[in-house]
Write a structure and sequence with these properties.
The complex is a heterodimer.
Chain A: H1 6-10, E1 43-45, H2 55-59, E2 65-69, E3 82-87, H3 96-100, E4 106-109, E5 123-124, E6 138-140, H4 161-164, H5 177-184, H6 192-196, H7 203-211, H8 215-222, H9 229-235, H10 239-242, H11 255-264, H12 269-276, E7 287-291, H13 295-306, E8 310-314, H14 323-326, H15 335-347, E9 351-353, H16 364-370, E10 373-376, E11 382-383, E12 396-398, H17 399-407, E13 417-421, H18 425-436, E14 440-444, H19 456-464, E15 468-470, E16 473-480, E17 486-497, E18 506-509, E19 515-518, E20 521-524, E21 528-529, H20 537-540, E22 545-546, E23 549-550, E24 563-565, H21 576-594
Parallel strand pairs in A: 7-8, 7-10, 8-9, 10-24, 12-20, 13-14, 13-20, 14-15
Antiparallel strand pairs in A: 1-4, 2-3, 3-5, 4-6, 11-21, 16-17, 17-18, 17-19, 22-23
Chain B: E1 5-10, E2 22-28, E3 31-38, H1 46-50, H2 55-59, H3 71-85, H4 91-118, H5 123-144, E4 153-154, E5 157-158, H6 166-189, H7 192-198, H8 206-212, H9 216-220, H10 228-231, H11 252-276, E6 297-305, E7 308-316, E8 322-328, H12 331-343, H13 351-358, H14 362-365
Antiparallel strand pairs in B: 1-2, 2-3, 4-5, 6-7, 7-8
Helix pairs in contact in B: 4-5, 4-11, 4-13, 5-6, 6-11, 12-13
The chains are: A alpha/beta, B alpha+beta.
Chain lengths: 596, 367
């Protein structure tokens, strides 16, 4: 190449034509900052939507997110009360926190300019520190489609409604291994469920174990504070699922079905014992008596026996389980399942004296005086009556009585057309049992279907089986013929009156809407109460009872220091898991009182 | 008379290239007699970091392995995971991935224009090309939400679908860049300063190139046709019409010409991709990342990055984290062993110039 290259010198000079052109770069602050509609800038959190699950904090590999307490947000059911605080000095704006936020409250915005002389200012709480211009600037968000949370529950296989009503075979078939692994892998381990469970079961831990394909571990974790897990796995009221983080955009994790899966991997009591392999402490010589082999009594018995106490349970009936045996129909909780769990308890040293009614077969005082501590889990046996005319008629009965007879293997004639009054689980149970006995069943409930306290799955199950539900129906009178046999139920329609205080609407009878439903039986299911006649009068004075329930302290201790109580007769939640929690709590207190 | 040998330290603060490394030069007068590279100033170690992060968390750090061109890392990482797991990727996602990779290649070459000309003292060129690169970064911002670290290609597909009107915007930008390339030619390739600086400098011996493990534009600049996109097509490159350029010479000048050609080729590829892109899903959703496990197995995948063949070897032990990820990038060869060889006998002023022509990227050496 010649040294003098004219083209090589002149060509670059053509660049001068660019002179005076508008520059590419945007000068800040002369031109307002601009960011794209998908920009990953500073965080913004919709505080009201956030539930403090901490999933953002868990996924953040830079440890840029801490969950902190902020003013105005208290922890409550389904909300830890904590909110994310972002260290903008650590954040890399990868937005994984946004992708995994189960509620979609956490977003990134178009804001990206943040200048401060103080390094501590980089720690700020989205939604608090950028309250003013945060929400309208949201740019990077994750909707249900893009979210990495899996909102769809693995469906539970069930028998078809028309097959179900032909027998008392278990309606729910349970997850198989593949289904359980898939369902378990949806869990984000936030632990909101644990807080909500009356017994504070280690839910994320056992779900993790199932996801890790370690069912034995799951069973051991479950048995740490619940000795009736298979029962809970089938029929628990599952408050845990109500607060599951996934419910905000989809289906709750099937916590109950996963527990059921883990417990069903142990086919009999021996296998449970082999897997759980509990440490049983040496006998400490203390004698504990328990009245009632319901969930609370069995729980207290199991954990006390493990701790070396000499435990005897007195049960009035022929089978253990209390309401879970005699109240819950067998298509929900088969007798073999309960027998397996109780059998395991007996195998580790829990003694149960069946057919022994305290107050009749054995004196309460005698038990009390011969024991170092007594736990009462006597439950609510006595049904409430409807309080309307005609209840004494032949064919007007109470659901718990009906269920007690059928579950105990007995027979009861109810005819072919039945009205069940009530909207709770007991009402649904009675209706579905009557349906299986061939009756045409109508549930009459004062409020709307969405107000029914019964489990939604139970309501759906009943509808699948052909049970009619008549909402906003107020029973007025049970009508009978001259032989004293029920022939109909007089009822009225109700309109819903909104509660000015924001509570649930109240039903108000519509004048002139009375009608008659022709039925052969009326089954009332509006509640039960306790029967404490087994306690001698002189002792009753010393035991504080309020509104039909024993008054207990946090340790489930009654006003008599040696006497503890749990379950329906001591708590207001009236479900099996609360009873188990009571039993577990009492165990700790009894151990503290007698040993340490 | 023997000239005195002096030791000269180039770097470690950005020695004319992106990233921190140091070259210890023994010089006699203006001539380098021995060059010794020193890396380790970035304190990274992504491969090890990934062993402590779950499969999704690891995805967000791989882009940092090469700052100017993060996308091949994302693509490699994702494809390795998909290969071990057997996860299907929707066809549309594959097209979007190729578009992203080619846009990244253009952006990288535009930045290279700046580095290559800047190290020759031609600063206007760099301001133009880096300014024009911003238009590509605008596209990335629209598409991914980030200008530099896109974190866009992830296992199962891509993170979001194309935004509304994106296709037209890409085409407009491509037209603009294509037009600007003529200006660049006048400013750089027709410039006698650049020609004199680039021709016959930093010559890679064609016979040794393969032995040394040279890849990408430096290899093609030796007249050896080698390109992963053609030799071992991934994503949808086998459905696109293009060819590999190769030129004899092996010096900085040929390497520059190869890149100049490849920018045009990439513009063409982006147009083809947009033309052929099917509709449908863009993402085969992964399960809950906290509990996402990948069956035991291993995979080696590679892409053609702007600097050459880029490979990931990944091992899963069946858990929720990678057991081992090994990143095989071109910079280790180009920036350490090859560079030391090439610099011997060159002028001090050409050290950064040669480093730029090889596409040396210290973050990738210290992956």
């Amino acid at each position: 190449m010649a040294f003098f290259d004219l083209k090589g010198l002149l060509s670059p000079i053509t660049g001068l034509k660019q002179f005076g052109k508008k520059p590419h770069t945007i000068m800040f602050p002369d031109v307002a900052e601009h960011a794209s509609d998908r920009y990953r800038g500073l965080h913004f959190n919709k505080l009201e939507d956030c539930i403090g699950c901490g999933n953002c904090s868990t996924i953040c590999m830079n440890e840029a997110i801490d969950m902190i307490q902020i003013a105005g947000y208290e922890g409550k059911k389904g909300d830890s009360g904590l909110r994310p605080r972002v260290d903008n000095g650590r954040c890399c704006w990868c937005a994984l926190c946004v992708e995994v936020c189960p509620t979609g409250s956490l977003n990134l915005t178009k804001d990206y300019i943040f200048v401060t002389p103080d390094a501590n200012d980089f720690l700020w709480t989205p939604g608090v520190d950028n309250k003013e211009k945060g929400e309208q600037n949201i740019s990077f968000y994750s909707d249900k489609e893009t979210s990495l949370s899996d909102y769809s529950r693995v469906p539970m296989r069930e028998l078809d409604g028309d097959v179900r009503i032909k027998s008392f075979a278990e309606a729910v078939l349970g997850y198989n291994e593949e289904e359980a692994r898939k369902e378990a892998s949806r869990c984000i381990s936030c632990g909101l469920c644990t807080e909500s469970c009356p017994d504070h079961m280690h839910i994320p831990e056992y779900i993790n174990a199932i996801a890790r394909e370690n069912d034995a571990d799951a069973l051991r974790i479950i048995y740490d504070n619940n000795p009736l897990p298979e029962m809970c796995g089938k029929v628990c009221t599952r408050r845990c699922e109500d607060v599951c983080a996934m419910t905000h955009r989809g289906d709750a994790i099937a916590i109950r079905w996963l527990k059921r899966y883990a417990t069903e991997t142990a086919k009999n009591a021996d296998i449970i014992k082999e897997i759980v392999n509990p440490e049983i402490k040496e006998a400490n010589g203390k004698k504990i008596s328990i009245i009632g082999a319901g969930p609370s009594g069995l729980t207290a018995g199991y954990y006390l026996a493990l701790r070396g106490f000499d435990v005897t349970i007195y049960e009035a009936k022929a089978k253990a389980g209390g309401m879970t045996f005699y109240g819950i129909p067998k298509y929900r909780l088969p007798a073999e399942s309960l027998e397996k769990q109780v059998g395991y308890m007996q195998s580790i040293g829990v003694k149960i004296n069946f057919n022994t009614r305290v107050g009749k077969d054995i004196d309460f005082k005698e038990i009390y005086n011969n024991s170092d501590a007594v736990f009462m889990g006597v439950g609510f046996e006595k049904p409430w009556t409807l309080g309307i005319t005609g209840e004494e008629l032949n064919g007007s009965l109470q659901a718990v009585t009906y269920l007690d007879v059928i579950n105990g293997g007995g027979k009861m004639e109810i005819g072919n057309k039945v009205a069940v009054i009530g909207g709770g689980n007991v009402a649904i149970d009675a209706a579905r049992v009557a349906r299986r006995k061939g009756a045409d069943v109508t549930i009459v409930y004062r409020r709307r279907v969405e107000d029914m306290p019964a489990d939604w799955e139970e309501i759906e199950g009943a509808e699948d089986e052909g049970v009619h539900i008549m909402p906003q129906g107020i029973p007025i009178e049970v009508i009978g013929d001259k032989n004293g046999k029920v022939t109909g139920l007089k009822f009225a329609r109700a309109e819903m009156i909104p509660d000015p205080d924001g509570g649930r609407p109240r039903p108000k009878q519509i004048e002139g809407s009375e009608d008659i439903l022709e039925v052969t039986s009326v089954i009332g299911a509006i509640g039960q109460e306790g029967d404490y006649s087994f306690i001698p009068d002189d002792m009753k004075d010393q035991i504080k009872i309020e509104r039909g329930r024993f008054v207990v302290n946090e340790d489930k201790q009654t006003s008599l220091p040696k006497l503890f109580a749990g379950g329906d007769s001591a708590n207001r939640t009236a479900d099996a898991i609360s009873a188990i929690a009571d039993g577990f709590r009492a165990v700790k207190a009894i151990e503290k009182m007698l040993i340490k | 008379m023997r000239e005195k040998t002096t030791t000269l330290y180039l770097g470690p603060q950005h020695p004319g290239i992106t990233g921190n490394m140091m070259v210890k030069l023994q010089v006699q007068g203006d001539t380098v007699v021995k060059a010794e590279t020193h890396v380790g100033y970035l304190h990274r170690g992504f491969e090890k970091l990934m062993e402590r992060r779950n499969w999704l968390q690891s995805f967000t750090i791989v882009c940092r392995i090469c700052v100017p061109e993060p996308d091949p890392n994302e693509e490699n990482y994702s494809r390795a995971v998909e290969e071990i797991e057997g996860r299907e990727v929707p066809e549309r996602a594959k097209y979007i991935r190729v578009m992203t990779l080619e846009l990244a290649r253009i952006a990288t070459y535009l930045l290279w224009y700046g580095g290559q000309s800047g190290s020759a003292g031609l600063y206007t060129m760099g301001q133009w090309s880096v300014g024009d690169r911003n238009y590509i970064l605008d596209l990335f911002e629209d598409l991914t939400g980030g200008r530099i670290y896109h974190m866009y290609i992830w296992p199962g597909g891509v993170r979001r679908d194309l935004p509304k009107g994106f296709k037209d915007k890409v085409l407009r930008t491509m037209d603009y860049i294509e037009k600007r390339l003529d200006d660049y030619d006048k400013l750089l390739f027709e410039n006698s300063i650049f020609q004199k600086r680039a021709k016959g400098v930093g010559i890679i011996d064609k016979n040794k190139a393969l032995e040394w493990g040279v890849v990408g534009p430096p290899l093609r600049g030796c007249g050896i046709k080698s390109d992963v996109r053609i030799d071992d097509p991934y994503e949808v490159y086998d459905k696109l019409d293009f060819e590999v350029p190769a030129m004899e010479g092996g010096d900085v000048w040929t390497r520059a010409l190869i890149r100049r050609f490849e920018i045009r080729q990439s513009i063409n590829l982006v147009r083809q991709v947009l033309d052929k892109m099917p509709g449908g899903e863009y993402y085969n959703k992964i399960p809950n990342p906290h509990k996402w496990t990948i069956p035991a197995g291993d995979a080696f995948v590679k892409t053609e990055s702007a600097r050459g063949e880029f490979g990931y070897y990944m091992v899963s032990d069946g858990g929720n984290k990678p057991r081992r990820v090994h990143v095989k990038g071109p910079a280790y060869v180009h920036g350490v062993s090859l560079l030391e060889n090439l610099l011997e006998g060159e002028n001090i002023a050409d050290v950064s110039f040669i480093m730029n022509s090889l596409g040396t990227c210290p973050p990738e050496i210290e992956r």
